[in-house]
Amino acid sequence: MVRAHAILYFSLMIRFLLFSLWWLSPLQDDTNFWHILAEVGFETKKDPQGYTVEVPRFSQHLKSYQGKKVKLKGYVIPAGEVGDVEKFMFSALPFNVCYFCGAAGPETVVEVETDEKIKFSPDAIWMEGILRLNDRDPDHHIYLLQQAKVVKK
Hints:
With about 150 residues, the chain is α+β, with helices and mostly antiparallel strands. The chain has helices spanning about 1-25, 35, 60-65, 80, and strands at about 40-45, 50-60, 70-75, 85-90, 110-115, 125-135, 145-150. Strands 3-4-5-7-6 form a five-stranded mixed β-barrel. The protein has a two-stranded antiparallel ribbon with strand order 1-2. A hairpin with a 5-residue loop joins strand 1 and strand 2 (about 50-60). It is globular.
């Protein structure tokens, strides 16, 4: 039990460190929204089937952006990795250190829904869309960016 707590603590510290390094980097722009998406915690609960799940708990500040247009600078997770080109994941961190590689937390990625065809590039892009917070549907990520489009800074 102690070892499990130590591993969890270490994992959380690594996530915090990586996100802090990114957030404090000179590329950070105060119009970039990732720092607000970090205002989330998680509560462990049992789902109706009895499985233990982590449920997001969004800050009041973050909740105030529900349904509003936000802008993010980040990296497209290759469409071949997640399915189709109209829905994909968008990460605050490059693909090699993103959430799916175990190097960051769920607050560093959003699920994107767009009508545009977005091609994978190792370079960061800016996207803008309507933010939806998800604390109920396990088939979707905790953050959704709907009606998203690529924008210039």
